[in-house]
Amino acid sequence: MSGFNKVVDTYEQAMAGLEDGMTVIAGGFGLCGIPEGLIAQIKTMGTRDLTVVSNNCGVDGFGLGLLLEDKQIRKMVSSYVGENALFEQQLLNGELEVELTPQGTLAEKMRAGGAGIPAFYTATGYGTPVGDGKEVREFNGRPYILEEAITGDFAIVKAWKADTYGNCIYRHTAQNFNPMAATAGKITVVEVEEIVAPGEIPPSEIHTPGIYVNRVIKGSFEKRIERKVTAN
What we know:
This protein is α/β, with parallel strands linked by helices. It has one domain: Glutaconate Coenzyme A-transferase. Helices cover 18% and strands 27% of the residues. It is built from 5 helices and 11 strands; from the N terminus they run αβαββαβαβββββαββ. β8 and β9 form a beta hairpin. Keywords: Transferase. GO terms for molecular function: transferase activity.
């Protein structure tokens, strides 16, 4: 990787610098739009004591669920945790700290972190355990709680296409949390299906500008379906 070319050839290069105790922000929603190869690389590295911020924690044996098998995750910040039996077991056994966060609040925490906004007020969660211990202010007669932004040592993101400068496009619903996650990492690594030359992505179509991206790697994806539903 040299100059403006942010492409790396190996997953070892992609995740170089990840250490025990760091915070990793991961894009994806369920199994849609997850950086499969980057997650697998963290599994291979054996990095431990991680705080992982993501909408959910994958499923048993796939996605972020892989990192539960060797108890690499110390704390999970997420909005939905219902598809993973190992997650449930570790939570109930006190082996995994979990910070449940409303989904929209979680997305805004990432976006605010990437924008340099340290905190924001939201009505979501007021009067519930989510709001316990948080500052409350009233605006136009309605109470709001103060939520702090999130940033991470690493952000791992899955995009459809990127150029060598790191400008990214996401495909359909695989966009989900990825654009917000991409802005919130000190080091942002994007795993893509296709890498193109600079100028091949029209500026008006770029979802994540390359200024946010440190490394790009071309991956291959299983794109597993989390739950298949068919009609009679």
